């Protein structure tokens, strides 16, 4: 998926973003994976944050970049900040990292990312890798105003910090973590056949979940764990999950 880079400059830039997003973005030597949520705790945007000189740089899906810029600007209020889309690009790969690259914080097998002018990709089969590692993608498995990040694996993917303090949607996320047991979530399933992304999964006429990205006979699915079992179907495809 194509990416865009948003720049936040100004002396209050780090405190500003730290107060809004799910992860700690104060560490200048690392790439942070984070999300911006609704006040009700639902997913809006996910992105990577790095420190570049006198700016915070946000690596986000291209089709979400303008909306994220507008949302951040709405939260700016009277802070001394500049928030703007840049002409920078994002390179990524799983081979030997080039100079200036940082490891993808979600999983070691996801390789490296670098903000530059070229926007190169080393040809990694990203969908196959995401399916194998159960990694959701912006706007595919991660659905704005619908997904909850803990159901989509953000704790496992190092995208949420429960010690950083308040952020938008923090109360709902913390309650899901500490006071409930997740009964739904994103998993990797076996798929026999093909079905369009977003096909409902059923079993014995009951709704079980949704099938998303598929690759090599496997796929990502959001499931209701108490209903998942034998006989699951997604359109013409058969779906199974080991649990």
Would you spell out the secondary-structure blueprint of this structure?
Layout: E1 3-9, H1 13-18, E2 32-37, E3 43-52, E4 55-61, H2 62-76, E5 82-85, E6 89-93, E7 102-103, E8 112-116, H3 126-133, H4 170-178, E9 184-192, E10 199-203, E11 206-215, E12 218-224, E13 232-234, E14 237-240
Antiparallel strand pairs: 1-4, 1-5, 2-3, 3-4, 6-8, 7-8, 9-12, 9-14, 10-11, 11-12, 13-14
Provide a brief overview of the structure.
This protein has 243 residues and is of the alpha+beta class. It has four helices and 14 strands. It has two domains: 3-178, 2-Layer Sandwich (Gyrase A, domain 2), CATH 3.30.1360; 184-240, no CATH class.
Features:
243 residues, Gyrase A, domain 2, 2 domains, 5-stranded antiparallel β-sheet, single chain, 16% helix, globular, alpha+beta
Molecular structure report:
By secondary structure, this protein is an alpha+beta fold. The protein has two domains: 3-178, Gyrase A, domain 2 (2-Layer Sandwich), CATH 3.30.1360; 184-240, no CATH class. Helices cover 16% and strands 35% of the residues. The protein contains four helices and 14 strands. The protein has helices at residues 13-18, 62-76, 126-133, 170-178; strands spanning 3-9, 32-37, 43-52, 55-61, 82-85, 89-93, 102-103, 112-116, 184-192, 199-203, 206-215, 218-224, 232-234, 237-240. The protein has a six-stranded antiparallel β-sheet. The protein has a five-stranded antiparallel β-sheet with strand order 2-3-4-1-5, covered by helices on one side. Strand 10 (199-203) and strand 11 form a beta hairpin. The longest helix has 15 residues, at 62-76. It is globular and about 60 Å long. The chain starts with a strand and ends with a strand.
């Amino acid at each position: 998926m194509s990416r865009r880079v948003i720049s936040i400059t100004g002396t209050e830039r780090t405190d500003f973003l730290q107060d809004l997003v799910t992860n700690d973005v104060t560490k200048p030597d690392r790439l942070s994976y984070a999300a911006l949520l609704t006040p009700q705790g639902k997913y809006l945007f996910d992105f990577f944050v790095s420190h570049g000189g006198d700016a915070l740089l946000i690596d986000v899906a291209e089709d979400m970049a303008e909306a994220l810029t507008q949302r951040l600007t709405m939260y700016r209020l009277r802070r001394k900040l500049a928030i703007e889309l840049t002409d920078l690009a994002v390179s990524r790969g799983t081979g030997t990292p080039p100079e200036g690259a940082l490891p993808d914080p979600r999983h070691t097998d996801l390789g490296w990312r670098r903000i530059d002018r070229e926007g190169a990709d080393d040809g990694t089969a990203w969908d196959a890798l995401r399916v194998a590692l159960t990694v959701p993608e912006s706007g595919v498995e991660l659905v704005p105003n619908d997904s909850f990040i803990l159901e989509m694996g953000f704790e496992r993917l190092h995208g949420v910090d429960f010690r950083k303090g308040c952020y938008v949607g923090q109360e709902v996320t913390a309650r899901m973590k500490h006071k409930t047991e997740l009964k739904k979530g994103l998993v990797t399933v076996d798929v026999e056949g093909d079905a369009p992304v977003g096909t409902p999964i059923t079993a014995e006429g009951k709704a079980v979940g949704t099938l998303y990205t598929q690759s090599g006979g496997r796929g990502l699915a959001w499931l209701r764990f108490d209903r998942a079992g034998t006989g699951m179907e997604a359109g013409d495809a058969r779906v199974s999950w080991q649990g």
